[in-house]
Amino acid sequence: MYAPPRTRSLPSLLALLRCVWRGDGDLLGLLPAAAYRMSIGPLGYSRRSTVIVNDPDLVLHVLKDPDQIFPKSDLMVGALEPLVGDSIFVSAGARWRRQREMIDPAFSHIRLNRAFTAMQAAVDAHETRLDGAAAERTPVSLDLAMSHLTADIITRTVFSTPLQSRIAHDVFADFAAFERHVAHVKLSRLIFDPAFHPVAQPPEVLAACARIRRHLGEMIDTHLADGGAYNDIASAVIGARDTQEGNGARFTREELIDQLGVFFLAGHETTASVLTWLFFILSIRPDIAARVRAEVQAVAGDGPVEIEHTKRLAYTRQLFRETLRLYPPITFLPRVAMADTSLGGRRIKRGALIMIAPWVIHRHHAHWDNPDVFDPDRFAPEREAEIRYGTYLPFGLGPRICIGAAFAQTESALILARLLRRFDFEALAPETVRPAARLTTRPADQVMMRITRRG
Hints:
Layout: H1 12-22, E1 40-42, E2 50-53, H2 56-64, H3 74-84, H4 93-109, H5 112-136, E3 140-141, H6 142-159, H7 166-182, H8 187-192, H9 203-225, H10 233-239, H11 253-284, H12 286-300, H13 307-312, H14 314-326, E4 333-336, E5 341-343, E6 346-348, E7 353-356, H15 358-361, H16 405-422, E8 423-427, E9 435-437, E10 441-443, E11 448-453
Parallel strand pairs: 2-7
Antiparallel strand pairs: 1-2, 3-11, 4-7, 5-6, 8-11, 9-10
């Protein structure tokens, strides 16, 4: 049995001291050993109450939020607002419902069959880049390679623009800077600040967000000026109308920047995170890589990998789902109580942080056998009935479930099939790899790979 890298659990006080000593703001290190066994309970020591919820029924109650008292936490909203404004990712109530009703048809407008062409083109370009690295025997940062590839896919799909264009490349670079700074959570803020305390962002974060929004605005302006010449997600969002109020209003230019910023944020970074862990694991487990290659050969042969093939790559999809379990891209789904209430018999005060952590739930001893072991066959058809609803939530659950789940699964199956068929991956210093919770569940440091062209 293979257990890939994880953060070693410690008692609460030792976990806090470890985080202070490391000083990198990684929230995984704060999770005490007890968190992986309790159903609901306090998390750490802080001025505002923080409650972790692991019971599936309680998780569903919070995420479905029938009484509308558990919106996304003020800490998350404060961190992301400079980039995505009051968009669908952070809004609540009637405003969120209006945005979701407008955006859902816009996203479904881009059928996977159409988006798949953009995915193939991006993978073509990425294979060429990796060919160069393989020929020169140049080590490659796996994290940056996967981020570059998935960002290329999302810009081609959303804006019909490859990442090599000036604007798209600048957006990618500034988003990387935004991630580095916003991801660094100050422990003092978590421990000492009261509920709803304003979240101040450093100047470099605000500058990166301003540049990203300016570039997104330029790409939107290109679409607005061409009056329907494009047929992509951006044009579909531009054309979306408000049916809730019955006035047929469209998004303003600022709202378009907010919403399309979410597509860029959620559409590439989450998938890049999973793929980074997947290719790392495959570099350690060549037997699993061989099984994927055999499946790709049986399904697609030596020809192009088409969308119909990705649907038939059953084991490859199981591999993706098991990686999502062990390394959910969104480590935490924090909510805040907007009123005094109770949860699982526990009193919850207004302002309390309600921490739903896919990382913890996916590794919880009550929900999974050998929870830290990598076992793609958990998701084989004959075993799926063993998985209790509410214990697997890499894309969230309830009304705010990710609308891009099918896109991410198809994209990942294509990337795995194409790159594994063409290349071997060898991790350099795999013993140093450990996870960290930033905007997504990433390796704490870049994973360097040596890539070799097969055959």
